[in-house]
Amino acid sequence: MSGTTPPPPRVAVVGVNGHGRSHLQHVLDAHAAGRLRLAAVADPRLDDLPELPAGTRRHPDLGDLLAEGVPEAVVLSTPIHTHAALATAAVRAGADVLLEKPPTATAAEFTELSATVEAAGRLCQVGFQSLGSAAVDHVRRRVADGRVGEVTGYSAAGCWVRTRAYYQRARWAGHRHLDGRVVADGALTNPLAHAVATALAVAGAQRAEDVTAVETDLFHVHDIEADDTSAARVHLAGGRDLLVAVTLCAAERGEPFVVVEGTAGRITLYYTLDTVVEEVPGHPPLVTRHERTHLLTDLLAARAQGTPLRSPLADSGGFTRVLEAVVTGPAPRPVAEGFFERLELPGGDEGRRLTGVEQAVAAALRERATFSELGLPWTR
Predict the structure, then answer these.
(1) Angle between helices 107-120 and 317-328 (to 10 degrees)
(2) What is the pLDDT of residues 347-372, one digit of tens each?
């Protein structure tokens, strides 16, 4: 009958523990509001969940879930090295996908998944939440309008804290490789991957062909295989470059940010806050705050209305070039005892604070140099 309201789209959440719990809660809230229907959840551990709506199916894995019925959309929040295979299975079954970042653990997997998504005619949104913010488009417009003059370079920084418990959260945590597979759980490719992806988005360099070369400078303070304190120089088509400096061994958590430097000023995007600070000599700083669209909401709107995705898989190509350089380049170097402080934390946990790392990150951005190029003592 004409005028009948279509039923809300059915959504499944695969991976409902760890970060997946935030996805599950968003879907539960949207279900309660009538914007979608939680059709099913899947996870090997389903014994500690919030109350689920009546009729929600429970499965141990995605294969079992799809065998019982394919929803319109699947949210995948599973270990990095499982992303490619699970996303492939979901889109081949006929579902659209919200895939947690990084989308794949290797460039080869990215290429294969991209071809599969295109052949299946499905949508694949990558979970770089910051790309759902209107702040990214605002910065692009301000740069295009010449507010900072000619762009001289892009940079990104993040000073966060991770403890031993973080690296004990899962068997794959803190690994570059595990059981012969690439895992890519380093600072640049997982916890602070948003710094890289958001900077590439601001620079208009999200596709694979937009990144021409990547230099990495990787270290670890914790007893892990992957990096926790890292710098990278990303060369972009057109001659500009992006300098990234991050750490998970700061004294305290600071807000990560992306900077556009120009001949007439600079713009800083605090991407977790959706806040932009524009600084032009002779003028007071201009601070603006922007709305953010949840990427699942955006995916469902794209399904219904044909609007473009805010974070489509193809736009993770540039980020994947960086990831590939991180996991195939020189292994992260350990920082020697004496350059960091061990902190005893409740419950037998331990933190590690790299002395002066905040100043090192600031210097890297100021000098547009990696940590090793700065000649810092702990890099020798």
Answers:
(1) 150
(2) 999 999 999 999 999 999 999 999 99
Locate tokens 């020189």: which residue?
330
Check residue 278 and give its pLDDT: 98
The whole-number pLDDT of residue 2 equals 57
Residue 207 to residue 219: CA distance in whole angstroms:
27
**Domains of the chain as residue ranges with CATH:** 10-129 (3.40.50.720), 134-291+314-379 (3.30.360.10)
Q: Is the peptide bond before 102 cis (omega within 30 degrees of 0)?
A: yes
State whether residue 30 is helix, strand or coil.
Answer: helix
The separation between CA 172 and the C-alpha centre of its own chain, rounded to angstroms, equals 17
The 3-state DSSP class for residue 212 equals: strand
Separation of alpha carbons 75 and 17, rounded Å:
13
Q: How many CB atoms lie within 10 A of CB 355?
A: 16
Q: Which residue in this structure is represented by tokens 């470059």?
A: 241
> Quick one: angle between helices 134-144 and 193-202, nearest 10?
40
* SS3 of residue 135 by DSSP: helix
- pLDDT (tens digit per residue) in 214-241: 999 999 999 999 999 999 999 999 899 9
End-to-end CA gap in the chain: 73
Is residue 281 within 8 Å of 265, Cβ to Cβ? yes
pTM of the model: 0.96
Q: How confident is the model at residue 3 (pLDDT cuts 50, 70, 90)?
A: low
Distances (CA, A) of 319 to 168, 244, 262: 26, 12, 23
For residues 62 and 89, the answer to whether their CB atoms sit within 8 Å is yes
Query: Under a CB-based contact definition with an 8 Å cutoff, are residues 312 and 125 in contact?
Result: yes
